[in-house]
Hints:
Chain A is of the alpha+beta class.
Amino acid sequence: MSELHLLSPKGFRAGGAYAGIKTRKVNDVGVLACDTLATAAAAFTTNKVFAAPIAVGRQHAADGKLRGLVINSGNANACTGKRGLQDANEMCALAAAQLKCKPADILPGSTGIIGHHLPMAKVRRGIVEASQNLGNSSEHSIAFNDAILTTDTRRKFAAARLKLGKQTITLTGICKGAGMIGPRLALAQARRSGGVKPQGRHATMLAYILTDAQVSAPALRKLLQPAVNKSFNSVTIDDHTSTNDTAVLLASGASSGKINTIAAAKAFLEALTELCQSLAQQIAADGEGATKVVRIDVTRAKTDRDADLISRSIANSPLVKCAMHGNDPNWGRIVSAAGMCGASFDPDRATLTLQGVEVFRRGQPVPFDPATVSELLAAKEVVVKLDCGHGKSSHTLWTCDLSKEYVTINADYHT
Amino acid sequence: MSELHLLSPKGFRAGGAYAGIKTRKVNDVGVLACDTLATAAAAFTTNKVFAAPIAVGRQHAADGKLRGLVINSGNANACTGKRGLQDANEMCALAAAQLKCKPADILPGSTGIIGHHLPMAKVRRGIVEASQNLGNSSEHSIAFNDAILTTDTRRKFAAARLKLGKQTITLTGICKGAGMIGPRLALAQARRSGGVKPQGRHATMLAYILTDAQVSAPALRKLLQPAVNKSFNSVTIDDHTSTNDTAVLLASGASSGKINTIAAAKAFLEALTELCQSLAQQIAADGEGATKVVRIDVTRAKTDRDADLISRSIANSPLVKCAMHGNDPNWGRIVSAAGMCGASFDPDRATLTLQGVEVFRRGQPVPFDPATVSELLAAKEVVVKLDCGHGKSSHTLWTCDLSKEYVTINADYHT
């Protein structure tokens, strides 16, 4: 599927422009349009401190219909009060004028420096320019993709093709995110406007997923939340939930593939979940200062909540993250992280493997050669598997190691 | 009170010895004895993965009576199975033989490398030697104090004198702890034995507090938990709860001061809490790689639980800790940490001050000179105060900054 790109699903066009918001000369405004009114589902940050485009986006996505997206990077339009809300609404109005639709059919998104008003002269120019060069080639995909990146060191893309009977539908997605990553996304009804948001550089997670399937808005909503839970809500870099986190799923309906049976919905959900998980993994791999992805597999926990708590406690322990950075098979930090999080956990029932090597079994250390396991931990992808031996619940979480570079990136910045 | 030392309260003697458990030639075995049976209260880690001396200690402290303490550093006696329990029990028996009391009247404590059996030949020699040079001078205090230190860069001591009517009582305490610090201590009844514990270097929190007041064991229990909650349970370096965390309070009753009225109990609790808070602060200041203490004051939260959640969310955010390290007045990270933790929080009611400078007020950024605030943040003690404007609950938490040195310390160690 190497030939697939964001705009491979039928019915979408996109464009990007460099408007001068970012200092680095890379596109910073993007517009994405569906040829007709798409069905849509969107999940937003649950941080009680949320940005202006989140407040506007919640309202615009509430009816499950969208014609397009308008996004900018280099400025999060957060901590910007009433003018921020006006600006987010104006972005929608400008894109709507170009696409000849209602402003309420446009979903806005912003990421970048916060605590500053958007430079609207530049944004206006950027929206017009991006709208005037819409297309559906791979170059157009890249032009839009670049417009959502900030501290990311690379683009993140995933795709799937799915046979529904004789029809083939296509799913594609892009995302951004490198720091301030601990998303807790939830689908939401429209809420009252969002007040003022925090200041300072941060790195929101944004994910835009497209499909050409025919699928109703209620079905899309039902499919997005479980996929998000097993992917974006299961990636943590620093467990800091951003003010701007957003994941959007648009269905153009331009293919003949219909999600109108339980079997089709199941197949679609599976493909969507895998796609989102690939994006989540790419976020972890591009984590600020990260040298590796660490996958935490917790199995046989007593309850789903226990599996979730245990995996997060391990993934967010700075001691575990540092050990992973140093290729140190320090399993005591992992087992004690499981024991400290309030979940049901009995070390006498638990078994821990690092990269497939058993190091702890039912409360007893298993003799192993530290040098061998340390070498295995030097991989780009590390799997930590904790079998709790306690029940039937499992959870998988992606994280990364904690390096000096993370400290450099986040301590050396001055507001 | 500069003349006070750990053994200033009447009725206690202590000694230390170098038995060769630690490679650095500093005392690693300590014995502390009360002349008579002391009333006692002890709080232990709530980690479900707990060490052998915790399992034994819970049983020995359950009746509220202790004659003494036997401790070692350099080896945590954790992840040591049944033999570990035997060893912890033998340590008590050896000390009891020296002090001519029952083994069940001795509380054991261990800290250091884990996943290894105690070198009992050395430990035995150390206990005999430490017991044979008991005394109550400041040199004896230091000899015992040094025997609990591992990665600590300095001793930690606090003391108070309290007038109860015409009588004066004395309270003193020492503690250790530098990493793997996120204590969640609770007083406990005896439990079944503890199985096997994690391997690898770690740095438990141990606190030993002495008083010569006359106070009943039930009263002591009631006093210790609230003092611990506002001190040791309110310090976090990496939010990683150790397997060996312990705080013990021994009352010799050797003074004429009695805690037998509500007023006396209140005065005692206040002094005890302040003493424990001083020790907790000293732990934060000596945190691995720390360059400063950061005090998080959350006020006017909706509930006690909200105040606790918000202060911990701020203190444990790597982004906040890195900003503190870089003297960066990045208040967005602080406000968003408050918004993401699940507590009731409304940015439109909140006010944030950094070192006394208001930077955010009721949802609006307050203009300030970043250079000036950055200079203020370069202090050894930084105060972050978040007024939630929402209720009546408050919580104070001590933490430290996150530096590259923390990563070096914790990534470069190999099991």
